[in-house]
Amino acid sequence: MVDHIFTDYNEATSALRIKDLKQSLYDDGEIIMDQVLVCLHGDEHKKRRKLENKIFTRDVFQYYENTIFPKTINKTLEPYKKSGKMDLVDYGFRVLLNLTADFSGIDRPEKSISETETLLRLLKVFASGATLHHSTRDHEEVKSEVRDALKEFDQKFLIPSISRRKMIINKESSDELPNDILTILLANEDQLNLPYDVLQREIAFYLLAGAQTSIHSLVHAFHEMHNWLKDNPERKSSIKNDPIFIQKCFLESTRLHPSSPVALRKPVCPVKLPGDKDAQPDDNVVIDLYKSNRDKKIFGDDADKFNPDRKTPDGQNLYGLSFGLGMHSCIGRNLAAGVNSKPDTNPDNHHYGTVTMIMRKLISCDAFPDPNNTPKMDEKTKRPNWGYYPITFNAKGG
Predict the structure, then answer these.
(1) Residues 6+ away with beta carbon under 8 Å from 205
(2) Is residue 95 in a domain?
(3) Residue 37's domain spans which residues?
């Protein structure tokens, strides 16, 4: 067995596009990831992704961004206004929980604090199972927690959500069908023939994926932007009125801090890799996103620095390879990151994505890292993520 490691941006790009390399990053986390979309390959992957793509459309994104998400951001911020302080990691989980639940198809009939806390707790357990490859905890202990969480999730959330959707689907008119993944899968179950446990994991994965990666991207972006402002204080006053620049801050930070430092692939047959390397089915292909995204040949001599004014070569994304490429590119990229702006983009009708929307709200409230409270990295994972990031803000702002 050979490990083929790619750190060059162009070689990493080519490797991500090879169709005979299957996803293997989540092999250790099969307790929650087995047969979910991101782990499928070939025709099965293409069929399910084509179906689920019906939810990830520009119209649906704009509806959530313009109508639903602003209310969610404000409502989630409300309990913290009295103190003017909060943990950004915790707030990120809470504000994104509602959005990912809507997209996944998980109903919250009570809309109570206890119901939200339960779903939040389950989401964090699912996330620990999905990222088991990088976990510093005992793996069997994590798996046991995931099994228990899936049972609780099933009884309290999934089964009631399925029952309501089946009643709607069985009606003659489909006008009332919710725009979510669960509804799409149930409405097409004759085509997919998904075993119940696969359906369960698919919905649990969507619930955690939209929140887990976006939360850490949010905190990294907030941290990088404030550090940059220390050296560029003249830009501070203008940021509130420049949402496109805030989006660039997020995209630049995402380049430096991909949600997973590496992408892992396994050949399904003998494969020719970049650099004229030959890979066999028992080999590992390691695409180092962290290093590739800092390739000076692509992003300049300051490639390892945060520079929201960075100009990228034609055809290269501001976020580098952080959302992947090819068949396993992130299906929710536009939801989280919006679309790239152009010189003539109208900021009033631009699609910014959920993370930039949260950052805009925080900036409008003069949010700032709490000078009296030290942030901490997440010690439960080898991924370089923040586990605790205290901030202060002006409750009357925004």
Answers:
(1) 32, 33, 36, 37, 38, 126, 130
(2) yes
(3) 26-259+332-392
